[in-house]
Amino acid sequence: MHKWMLAWNLKNLLLELYLHAIFLFGSVCVVYSDCTPEHLAAIMNCSRQDRHTRNYDYMEGGDVRIRQLFSRTQWFLTVNDDGNINGTQDPTNCYSILEIRTVSEGGILAIKSIKSQYYIAMNKSGQLQGKRIYNENCNFKEVFLENYFNAYSSAKWTKNGKEMFIALSQKGRPLRGKKTRRQHIASHFIPMKCREEERRID
Ligand SMILES: *[C@@H]1O[C@H](CO)[C@@H](O)[C@H](O)[C@H]1NC(C)=O
Ligand SMILES: *[C@@H]1O[C@H](CO)[C@@H](O)[C@H](O)[C@H]1NC(C)=O
Ligand SMILES: *[C@@H]1O[C@H](CO)[C@@H](O)[C@H](O)[C@H]1NC(C)=O
């Protein structure tokens, strides 16, 4: 176990929420959390790599934010170099640093891992997969829930009229969209950012 690996504890995170301000950034909610220097260094490092690849990013425009999505089941969402979607409990994992871009009104977003440059996509059968090339399957609708949690439903596909959500199980595995529900904790995420990042920019 590396010493910089943090045992993330949702109860502590939620406790912090009451101590720190919550900012509403456009339509997108973000929770500012105190991060360790290691966590911050990793995020800065991962973001630097993004600047090298940005030239190759054909998708321009839209409001872009760098966030980590922390699930209510206590995992950070990742998309690796094979396009696999999974959870990690290591907050310094580069694949968990996500670029969240507004693609159209009504809270429609595209979510991409900076390191792998794969977008999160959901196909017709509700399977989550990473996609190198952006298409409509990469569009998700951000739904605001109580207690600062958000849910992300496919903007393209539904199953028998029901929304299908990005969800991570208790074991950090992605769930099939048709097994997900808005009320299930597996579908609940907090978009997080280190408070220290803001201070640096100031
Ligand atoms: C920064 O990124 C490079 C390239 O991926 C990696 O080798 C290095 O270990 C990273 N440094 C930190 C502090 O995370
Ligand atoms: C997904 O994450 C879990 C928990 O960290 C890990 O045990 C598993 O090997 C990962 N699976 C893949 C395909 O990366
Ligand atoms: C959805 O994605 C999965 C995993 O990549 C694939 O096995 C399946 O065939 C896809 N289904 C459709 C309808 O595209």
If you had to describe this structure to a student in words, what would you say it looks like?
This protein is 17% helix and 36% strand. With 202 residues, the protein is an alpha+beta fold. It has one domain (10-201): Trefoil (Acidic Fibroblast Growth Factor, subunit A). It has a 9-stranded mixed sheet with strand order 1-2-13-3-6-7-10-11-12. A hairpin with a 3-residue loop joins strand 6 and strand 7. The model is unreliable at 1-7 and 18-27 (pLDDT under 50). The structure holds 2-acetamido-2-deoxy-beta-D-glucopyranose (NAG) (3 copies).
Structural descriptors:
single chain, 202 residues, alpha+beta, Trefoil (Acidic Fibroblast Growth Factor, subunit A), nine-stranded mixed sheet, two-stranded antiparallel ribbon, 3 helices, 13 strands, disordered N terminus, binds 2-acetamido-2-deoxy-beta-D-glucopyranose
Brief digest:
With about 200 residues, this protein is of the alpha+beta class.
